[in-house]
Amino acid sequence: MLGALDGRRVTAYPALEPDMQSAGATFHDQDAVVDGPLVSARAWPDHPAWMRAFLDVLRATAPVS
Length: 65
Known about the structure:
Elements: E1 9-10, H1 17-22, E2 26-27, E3 32-35, E4 38-41, H2 47-61
Parallel strand pairs: 1-2
Antiparallel strand pairs: 3-4
């Protein structure tokens, strides 16, 4: 989907880098990338870093009262 990720910073499985760029994203080869509410990771080995980043975003956007 061309332009679906325009201006976003993402990571994904390394073989998907061209697809992410085609969708308009800037690809970063790291365990977790946060861009606003979007949290991405490369693959299952990155789940711990992805979950930490996701929880940080969740806490910032929907704090527990």
